[in-house]
Amino acid sequence: MPIIFKKSIRDMTIRYRSTLVAILALTIGLWGVGSLLVSMHIMTHDLTENYLQTEPVHISIESEDFNKLKLHELLAKPDILAAEFRDKAVLRVEVHQDEWLPLWLYSVHDFEQLSLAKFFRQRGSFPPTEGTILVERNSLLISDFDVNSTARVQSEGKIIETEISGIIFDPAQAPATQDAFVYAYTDKKTYRKLTGEPVNQRLIIRFSNVETKQDVKAKFEKLSDEFSRSAIKVKSFHIPEFNEHPHQFQLNTLLYLNGAMGMLAFIMAMVLVSQLMSSILTQQIRQIGIMKAIGATGGHILKSYITYILAMSLASIIIGLPLAIMTGKAYSAFVAGILNFDILTTQIPPAIYAVITLLGFALPLIFSLPALLKGMNISVNDALGDYGIITNDGTASSKATGITNTNVLSLSIRNVGRRKTRMMGTMATMALGVAIFLTGFNVRASLSEFLDKTGQSMKYDIKVLLKQSLPPEIAIAPFKDIDAIKSIEGWLGGVGRIQNDSLSTASPIGLIAAPFDSKLKDHDMMQGTWLTGSKELEFVVNQQAAMELKPLIIGRHYAIAPGDKQVSAKLAGVVREFDVAKIYVDLDNYNRLANPDNNINSLMISLNDRAYDNVIRVKKEVEHIIEKSGMNVIYVMSQAERAVIIFNHLNIILMIILFLSLLVLSVSSMGMGSAMGINIIERTREIGVLRAIGATPKMIIQLFVLEGFIISVPSIISGLLLALPMSSLAAGFFGELILGEDTPLDFAFSTPGFTITLIVTLLFGYIASRVPANKATEITVRQAIAYE
Amino acid sequence: MNIIELKEVTKSFSQGDRIFTALKNISFGIEKGEHIAIVGKSGSGKSTLLNLIAGIDHPSDGLVKVKDTNIHELGESELAGWRGKNIGIVFQFFQLIPTLTIIENTLLAMEFVKAIPKNERQERARSLLRRAGILDHFAKFPAALSGGEQQRAAIARALANDPDILVADEPTGNLDSGAAKSVKAIFAELVAGGTTVITVTHENVDGGQFDQVIRLQDGEISQ
Q1: Which of chain A's ends, N or C, has fewer CB atoms near its CB within 10 Å?
Q2: Rounded distance, CA A169 to CA A323, Å?
Q3: Which of A291, A381, A788 has the CB atom closest to B56's CB atom?
Q4: Contact, B70 vs B63, CB < 8 A?
Q5: Do A10 and B51 touch (CB under 8 A)?
Q6: Does residue A568 register a pLDDT over 70?
Q7: Quick check: A8 and A308 in contact, CB under 8 A?
Q8: How would residue B203 be classed by pLDDT, with cut points 50, 70 and 90?
């Protein structure tokens, strides 16, 4: 091996502590960015692949007139890629004793010949034996179901015990664990028996030559005209997001988070490496001079230190690459479990390995380039004249700081100004780490605050959704005797339509008719106002509806169709809530237009005691009453459980934010510690001189701890200040990612986060300077002065 | 014919607002195979003069010619290579690379310059160390050697590429009398073998030992 490379390797081993810190930081950075690349590749590919394997539905259409439709003629049309009847009913099923959840039951035309909306056998029978159902696998995690177990299904007020004959996997459904729905599939005969409803009333279609939701809408318009000509009246339709899993938003959030944090950790590790190289070069400046004096060119010097960097890179790649692959796969599997999809990727493409390896080698070199070029280009004279005791800088720094005293504090301040570039680099890295760490807490606080607001905006505790609307006195009567109930308000929920300029066909949308002045809902208005109760019909949309139907203009009149009528209504405002698209109208106005019997189908129950345990207890009591009375109910939901559902959507994101923030802070703190350590190593001879002229070890420690303090305190303050706009931007970004366009989260300041950040970073800063300072006093004066 | 020629060489340094002239209008010549001493008190400019001759520094004015080459006209990389081939440098504080063994320090110099074929380097390095009387210590690191031994190792390194000129800046300044004597003996041997040796010293020199003594005072040659 060339001697110059031997020198590099030995330099590494002699400075093993700094080298290990740099390798550790590099490994963490590479691990972060590498696992990001791996998980991004797997998750993006596999979730989409899982979803696409089902041949997802482009549109589902409901009509009572499909008996007039000749399905084989429809299938012969060039625009139609696949179509079949797949009825859907919303029933209820008991998942645990006295715990009921909505059941989405599908009737399947032919299990052996699924042409679209495919699902896949996991265990048990396929197709289901007669009279039984197949249950989607994710439901097993929130129920006592299994093959050959019996499910108690509530339909039309009756309880029907139904055997589960098999478990299937339907990647196109939102995970049952997150949305608290159970999905089941059965044949048409069993469907009719369970639901009491006719079949062939819901048609699902895949069009050919479509690439966007707009394309689907255009094809549907054409089909709708044909249906009209055949006297097939479309009752409702639904067009999902094109080729997008229902929980794609969660995945996108995770990927963005991973991406941002992983890159940041990696870049900070690069900064640390460049600081290390800068320090090595500074410390070895005289060696560089000697080598040049005996014939080394700049190229020789460069080669030597590049070897150092490449050796560290190699070590970090050897450790970090397998870790990244392992973590990326594990993380993907974890997310797959949450989002209920299968990992299909068995081999990570060589390109990913290549990119991680290239990053591991190239970026440390690039970041260290300024230091390397300085070492390469320094003249022999300048290099040989550097004895590690800087006199010119001392003079300059005293001019810059205006300090000429030599007490410890003054010395510390002057010393900090001696290596300005490194000091700025250390402070910037530390400030960024602090900012990101606190941003993590603040974004988490923003999300938590949003969840609280969402929970608190609903002042009712339990909602009962009836299958049919009933007169209020009949609907409410069964529950009047429950002592714990404070009040029951009746609302009406259904489907409405809005006509806007961009669509020739009205889009169906959830509609809630509630008293305009109901105290049961707070309104987090994004634009305009809530309903005012004026005689003129008004409506409010939530932000999801506003996004789907934009542009909607406050104050403008739109045609809305509550029920079968179409009326003109003024858009009063847009409310922010974490829910599907909905419109709200005043109940009195709605009754006047479309509900002369004043029937209701939603019971909004408020309790005297809103504690979680009490709510759950009363909910069970409500379920008992429903079971005994034979009421036909779609679901009974408590707000507490709804909050849990929403929280489950977001919890993973909250945890990841915190974890990655901590990772970034750790790397930036390592950078600070490394910089302080390097600083002290470089000044070993100077320390020896100070001790030789009378400085005690205690004074030396004080000097460096103070220097650390002088660097870390402004860094922390800068970081805390930087966290404010950063948190605001991040909250806005994640809000839009999770909740939709134009729906940023409000900035929230996390006081516990601030406190933790302050304590942790001050502590890190203290340790970062105290440890190397202690080490500096351990060597003898003679050794320190002779140090090279 | 002079192997080294200085003509009206001046060297100035800026120190903050003022200019300090270390050497003023120096002119002299050194013939091949001469043993030269450059003497003077601290601050007289002797190390500066040595640096100019070795190509470590450039004159502010004047001409420095070594082996027919105006070395001050060479670029840094070119100068490094030229220096490695033609000039061996011995420093007062030895300046061995601490993480390389004695033999590796010597081999390093050959590796930079590539004047000695690869397959001859090991043997040459051993031969130089033997000549310096420290072959037994070839696998040791500098910190394990005494001052005298380190200086002899530095001399071996300086001779690695068989230079025609050896410059030594206070080579015995850090040695005891015994070690100093052995170093002086090596120099005398080199001179006898035709190497031009230039030594900077602040000691009182005995003129008989040297072919030329250049006395510097306040940056000028004094007689």
Answers
A1: N
A2: 31
A3: A381
A4: yes
A5: no
A6: yes
A7: yes
A8: low
One-letter identity of residue A682: E
Give every CB contact of residue A88 below 8 A, 6+ residues apart in sequence.
A60, A104, A105, A106, A107, A202
The residue range of the domain holding B40 is 35-59+76-222
Q: How confident is the model at residue A503 (pLDDT cuts 50, 70, 90)?
A: very low
Which range scores top for mean pLDDT: A98-112, A277-291, A628-642? Answer: A98-112
Q: Which of A19, A294, A300, A685 to mutate to test the interface with B (most CBs of B within 10 A)?
A: A294
Q: Which residues of B touch A286 (CB under 8 A)?
A: 95
A464 forms beta bridges with: A603, A636
The answer to whether A3 contacts chain B (CB < 8 Å) is yes
Report chain B residues whose CB lies below 8 A from the CB of A4: 108, 111
Q: Report the 10 Å Cβ neighbour count for A503.
A: 13
- The ipTM of this complex is 0.89
How confident is the model at residue B16, as a pLDDT?
76
Task: Name the pLDDT band for A738 (thresholds 50, 70, 90).
Answer: low
Query: Under an 8 A CB cutoff, do B112 and A11 touch?
Result: no
Q: Which two tokens stand for residue A82?
A: 């696949």
* Residue contact B85–A292, C-beta within 8 A: no
* Residue B123 falls inside a structural domain: yes
B15 assigned to some structural domain: no
Q: What is the pLDDT of residues A658-673, one digit of tens each?
A: 777 777 777 777 777 7
DSSP state, residue A458:
B
Is B4 within the bounds of a domain?
no
Task: Write the CB contacts of A749 (distance below 8 Å, at least 6 apart in sequence).
Answer: A442, A445, A727
Max Cα-Cα span within chain B: 54
Query: B111 and A377: CB-CB below 8 Å?
Result: no
DSSP string, A501-549: TT-SSPEEEEEEEE-TT-TTB---EEEE------SS-EEEEEHHHHHHT
CATH, residue B112: 3.40.50.300
Cα–Cα nearest to B159, from B99, B113, B101, B213: B113
Residue closest to A27 by CA, chosen among A304, A254, A308, A270: A270
Across the beta sheet with B220-222, the strand order is: B87-90, B165-169, B196-201, B35-39, B212-217, B220-222
Q: How far apart, in whole angstroms, are the C-alpha atoms of residue B101 and residue B135?
A: 12
Angle between helices A684-692 and A639-682 (to 10 degrees): 60
The answer to whether the CB of B161 falls within 8 A of the CB of B111 is no
User: Looking at per-residue confidence, does A498 or A303 come out higher?
Assistant: A303
Query: In this structure, what DSSP letter does residue B91 have?
Result: -
N- to C-terminal Cα separation, chain A: 25
Check pLDDT > 80 for residue A679.
no
Q: Does B13 fall in a domain? A: no
A465: left (phi over 0), alpha (psi -120 to 50) or beta: beta
The Cα A439–Cα A750 span in angstroms is 9
Q: Please tell me whether residue A321 adopts helix, strand or coil conformation.
A: helix
In this structure, of A170-179, A376-385, A449-458, B130-139, the range with the lowest mean pLDDT score is A449-458
Residue A405, pLDDT > 50, answer: no
As a whole number, mean pLDDT of residues A109-124 equals 94
If one counts the domains in chain B, the total is 1
**B89 neighbourhood in chain A, CB within 8 Å:** 293-294
Closest CA relative to residue A27, chosen from A278, A331, A313: A313
Phi and psi torsions of A548, nearest 5°: -70, -30
Does A175 sit behind a cis peptide bond, omega within 30 degrees of 0 on the bond before it? no
Answer whether A165's CB lies under 8 Å from A132's CB. Answer: yes
Question: Which residue's entry shows tokens 């966007």?
Answer: A212
Mean pLDDT of all residues in chain A?
84
**CA distance to partner chain B, nearest, from residue A420 (Å):** 19
| CB-defined contacts A:B, below 8 A | 76
